[in-house]
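Q: Predict the bound structure with iron/sulfur cluster.
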Amino acid sequence: MTTMPEAAATSAATQNDDVILEVTNLKMHFPVSSGFLSRKPLGYVKAVDDVSFTVSRGETLGLVGESGCGKTTTGRCILQLYKPTAGQVKFNGQELTELGTKDMRLMRREMQVIFQDPYSSLNPRMTAGNIIGEPLVVHGLVRGKDEYREKVAELLVNVGLNPYMADRFPHEFSGGQRQRIGVARALSVSPSFIVADEPVSALDVSIQAQIINLLEDLQEQFNLTYLFIAHDLSVVRHISDRVGVMYLGHLVEMAERNEIYRNPIHPYTKALLSAVPIPDPVLDSQRERVLLTGEVPSPLNPPSGCVFHPRCPVANDSCPAYMPELREVETDHHAACLLATGYGSF
Ligand code: SF4
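A: Predicted complex:
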């Protein structure tokens, strides 16, 4: 089975030289054991399997795919919340997988996360002010109570909340307001890079747009770089500069935002896009429908060759035998499909 060579990893990058994050051949395989006392792994869940990409400073890279495709695990490996099984994660030129706990703690000021569920990610016993202000204290970024209160008030204003709300508890806020608190907490240490892990999935559609607009405003104001993770292509469309599509631990397509929506190449991306509703009934009736059959296979026992072949509507005899590499098939447009790369007997 082939793997993606380093040269291809680099070519999957945007052409902008100002790369803030470089992920190369990242793997995260979780051991599975038979029982509570058994330490011997029965196998491995290949949550992320040889993923490479780069993110440029100030860019938003959208990462999409169905639940269990490895996008959240990729985000956590980047932040070193999981120790990757293999591969490199370079942030600002620094290899994170080699950093000790102390150096990684310092690096965390630069790299923050916004979680999916604003209902469970905030401590219900802490006030909004303390939730937002805690990282300021942990990282020693404020001197004295006055500066602390001032900074918390400023962060609340930055995310569209009123400073008097600092004394309220999470249950006193709406879902959208709670996510704003999560955003303020991430912003508190002045990061340059944020992993937004499905930040709007738990919110009503009307509130989703508000949070996405807020993230865009903050990006401009603070020159932030985002890895924006979502399971829905329609959500990432608005905010992303480029979009990467993941399936069963693999990156199967990556291109500039408009290009991927206008000209999807991988059959899985086509299927995801054909499920996104189009408001215009004429356009909706004209577009190609790609219906997927079956469920996503288990990452514990992934299919041979192209992992998408059991569900792919255009698979042929070569697909179970060869794992396609992510290759540039059109300018700045990468796809991992034998059909697109002209490899195999098509
Ligand atoms: Fe489908 Fe084969 Fe392409 Fe995989 S390599 S996406 S199975 S056509």
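A: The radius of gyration is 21 Å.
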